[in-house]
Amino acid sequence: MRIVLQITMMVSLGAIVFVGVACQSAPPSEPESASAPTDEDQIRTLISGLETAWAQHDTAAAAALFAEDGDSLTSAGHAQGRSAVEEMYRQNFEGILKGTTIAAEMTSFRLLQPDVAVTDGTYEISGLKGPDDEDLPPAKGLWTGVDVKTADGWRIGCSRPMIPLPMSDAS
Amino acid sequence: MKRRAIHSDARGTDMRKWIAVLGAVALASGLSVAVGGQDASDDEEAVKSIAATWVEAWNAGDMKAVGDLYTDDSDYVDLFGQSLKGRTDIEASFSEVKSATYEGAKLSIETKAVHFVKSDLAVSDTVWEVSDLPEAAGPAPPSKGQATIVVQKQADGQWKIVAHRTRVPQSPVPAPAE
Asked: Minimal CB count within 10 Å: which of A40, A57, B65, B177?
């Protein structure tokens, strides 16, 4: 009998704690106003953040756009996790991407779940140099992101850029 | 304070029973963690099996079975950057590419990594290779590349492809000429 009472009390206490936590973690009610940035707006902000970080070769700022376990898979290799992504940017900004800028645009936004989106777009990297320091034409490509809404806002979960093959190769 | 009162009240048999209850709770939560782990590895196998089923169906020329792996609203971007939306168009495109370019060729796919973004949503990176390419008059079609699929667990528990991207990795800077 006493056990039942103890369990009941523990459960009640637990319920109180749980309700407390639930209240605390409930999202603040966001008023529906034109100024509230949509999920899509917030991802566009991520993209412009990357353009700025890239132009300044700011590896920490570029990596901060990624989720903690975010990753990037490019022709140069796979960087898994924010610190690996930062290292990837550091190597690239000291190497083949030195002195370059990027312009990126989002062409498609698709919400798979309230906190996961697949985004697609185009990019253009300017200022590339060849092995003899000669100017190269801009590299144009496409990117796909799987973005996640974290406690800190939207972040890049997966980045998968690609350079399309020329159509003539289709034959 | 209340909790302390409960504990100081419990002694003797009651205490032992209480410990037994706690033990049972701990055991149960341990079991649920283990079961959760089991589910997670089952899900990883299920995600990997999508690529395996895909390649089997493609090699058998069964594009309906390939299409079955996609949700109705899935999308696909091919090697040339062309975007297709919806299972029907994706399936039709694979049929066309297979008969126009890869008829008789043998495809193999290897899953390199599965990254669970959520328990019911994963990104799977694969590499693909085509052998026994048919003789063609023009330049040889791409025979190696990467594909990334985003897969989501459906209401019936089945994993399906919601987004598919394929590419032949190319550096933005061409390799130095000889």
From this structure: B177
